[in-house]
């Protein structure tokens, strides 16, 4: 955040959403998102200037994504599910830190731009999950996804 500024840093929420969604999309088991984001947080811990805060944020994202798959009983992995989950969890993530980080004090146009950029990055993150995981499946690197699962084929 210090290097990019508050608006640019928040647009990276879509990158976090990619990680938080890729793991459960591939594993397709209860707890995958939470466990995956815990591991991501632990790996980031020594490298992040936020310290333990980075771990907490990753675990929260894992919990929020886990909740979305729990609601669907871990049976929906469509493109729409990935994008909507990314956008909802991204909005929650942005909203949680909105006032503490002073984003509410920005000009209205900057706030609107921020929300548009965050939602755009979340849409991109959710879409990339399906595209990359399905490409890895077609290449044979991911054997647990099969043709009966919801797969997006781009032609």
Question: How much is the radius of gyration in Å?
Answer: 16 Å
Residue runs with pLDDT of under 50 for 5 or more positions? none
Structural class designation: mainly alpha
Q: Indicate the mean pLDDT.
A: 87
Backbone shape: globular
What is the element layout, followed by pairings?
Layout: H1 6-10, H2 13-27, H3 32-44, H4 52-71, H5 79-96, H6 108-139
Helix pairs in contact: 2-3, 2-4, 2-5, 2-6, 3-4, 4-5, 5-6
Structure summary:
Helix content is 66%, strand content 0%. The chain contains 6 helices and no strands. It is mostly helical and 155 residues long.
Task: Give an overview in words.
- The structure is a single chain.
- The protein is mainly alpha-helical and 155 residues long.
- It is built from 6 helices and no strands.
- The longest helix is centred in the last third of the chain and has 32 residues, at 108-139.
- The protein is globular and about 50 Å long.
- It starts with 5 loop residues before the first helix and ends in a 16-residue tail after the last helix.
- 30% of the residues are buried.
- The mean pLDDT is 87.
Highlighted features:
66% helix; 155 residues; mainly alpha
